Amino acid sequence: MAEYYIGEIISLLFMAFALGMDAFSVSLGMGMQQLRLKRIAIIGLAIGLFHIMMPFIGILLGKFISEGIGDFATIAGGVLLLGIGAQMIINAFIQDTKQLIEPVGFGLLVVALTVSLDSFSVGLGLGMSGAKTALAIMMFGAASTILTWTGLLLGRKVRGFLGVYSEILGGSILCGFGINILMM
């Protein structure tokens, strides 16, 4: 029984890292704007908060859906994770490098919402598969906050080549979890 919980925690940790990689890649670009440390802290906290709210809503909705459709919900959750991962990989290659929105005020909310939309879908899949809600959302929020801060700080030093690779890595991890759920 303890092995099951350790396995679930490790799976959620990898998933949190994969979701945070999207925030990391976006924050690399924002970090190249030479933001002040206070702004970096605010951006990281905002993205982390959205990575808590969005999957929480998704998990609640996923649990509601799974009660009505049973085993099909697990398959749908696996397909959803696989699709999100594939989308992240594809977007890494067709990404536009222009910064359209400044991470201040309403622009910060738009950036945080946009970066965390994939975590809503993952939360939906997790809710269908019966994951631990509090543990999942706290891991998602912490990982995305830390990875956002890391990306913003590294963005000051690095000039863009890590962004594509981090999104590919995150997408690959989500694809792997989707395939794992489908194989069960």
Automatic annotation (TrEMBL):
Its main location: membrane. Keywords: Cell membrane, Ion transport, Manganese, Membrane, Transmembrane, Transmembrane helix, Transport. It is a multi-pass membrane protein. InterPro entries: Mntp/YtaF, Put_MntP. It is found in: Cell membrane. One of its GO terms (molecular function) is manganese ion transmembrane transporter activity. The chain crosses the membrane at residues 6-28, 40-61, 73-94, 106-128, 134-155, 162-183. Pfam families: Mntp (PF02659). GO terms for cellular component: plasma membrane. The keyword Transferase does not apply. It comes from the Bacteria. Belongs to the MntP (TC 9.B.29) family. Probably functions as a manganese efflux pump. This is Putative manganese efflux pump MntP. It comes from Oceanobacillus halophilus. The lineage of its organism: Bacteria, Bacillati, Bacillota, Bacilli, Bacillales.
